[in-house]
Amino acid sequence: MSSSRFAPFHRLDLPYRTINGVPLYATVLIPRNIIDSNSSSNTTTTTTTTTTPPHPPPPPPKKTKHPLLIRFHGGGFIVGHRMYEPWFALWLLDLALERQAIVVSPDYRLLPEATGAEILGDVREFWGWVEGGGLERGVREGRLEGRLGTGVDVDVGDTVCCGESSGGWLSVWGAMVLGLGRKGGEGKEQQRVRIRAVISISAPLDATAKEYKVPRPRVFMGRSPPPPRQALAKIRAYIKRIEPGSIRTGCEPTPEMWELLLCIAQQAYLPRLFGAGAGAGEESSRSAMEGLMEMLERKDREMVPVWIVHGRDDTMCPAVCSSGFARRLHKVQPAAPVHLSLCPGEHLFDVNTGKDADWVQEGAQFLGEYWPQNSMSVE
Asked: Which residues are marked as active site?
């Protein structure tokens, strides 16, 4: 039996928000090579004799601030959770190990129990938790409990944000709308968190593409949903069964939930669900999914360097959703660095791809120009 792809990491689970008694967790994955190297450097032996005074103890080792890799999980905002291993790309974990980055993967509420406004609210709260020192305190407490080496520290100012499918959309949204790639975001003169780059994988960045938004009978990853009328009936029946106040923060793609997701995708129902209950205003979730493209043209929505990955044969989220976004970005923000990796393959074709793939090496070289950037030894 093969080992877990998370085996090279130490895991911490930290709550970043509680809603009606239900905690939302972020999982922290710290490369074991970081912990082992720090633990080794902290081990010292002092030998004394009756004739020679003891040597003073060596100075404590310098702490190293490690870059941060934030990853939002995919699943069409319907299914998935922060540690669902089959969707956690191997090459991303390889990248974290290679660059000694600390990985953080948060949960968020899911549709249709939640609204788009509530999902985006969770994302804001998560970034606020990181900005306010919650992540660093959690790592520090884990260290004090003896589970981590004393030299493990997080550099929140040296962050790359990534995600697959809906998680890729959330990554781009956070960088653009929350202004986390700029020195002053959301009216703040100064902030600690800096997104240096974004990695978007198989994401519906251009949700205005007709290939994505027009309802029609379709085949998704080799499977056909029920016919349109039956699909709509299944969607409405599920929504009708939701009890008021229900909260769902993680869900494996069981046959029932996967069929619901396919029905929603076939009927192009996701923008409607995502906008349900959203307030008015240009940044409300009512227009967020299809409004990401228009945000590019705003001068206060400058995009950070972005590496966009997509399979040419994607039947769940057509590749034009990424290529169209890249073209628009290049047109309206020509100075924004973009690396587009269009590869043969289906939706999430990359999950079992390692770091040695040519397209990964090319993208990693592009990424290396922007991240990691500030991480260094500190007193």
From this structure: 165, 347
